[in-house]
Design brief:
Layout lengths: L4 H49 L3
């Protein structure tokens, strides 16, 4: 185990760094998608309101 200690530590630190970047990317995309969904929902609400107010 001691023979591979440095190698395993480096590999684990690399893995942890990469998975952290991955999760940050996923979190950023989730936030972007929520903002987009909120915008689309607001636009759809405005559309429905315009329909409600439009003469038959």
């Amino acid at each position: 185990m001691r023979e591979f200690e440095d190698l395993l530590r480096e590999e684990f630190e690399h893995y942890l760094s990469e998975v952290t970047l991955y999760f940050r990317c996923i979190d950023a995309e989730r936030a972007r998608a929520w903002r987009e969904a909120a915008e689309v929902t607001a636009q759809y609400g405005a559309f429905l309101e315009a329909l409600r107010r439009a003469p038959p």
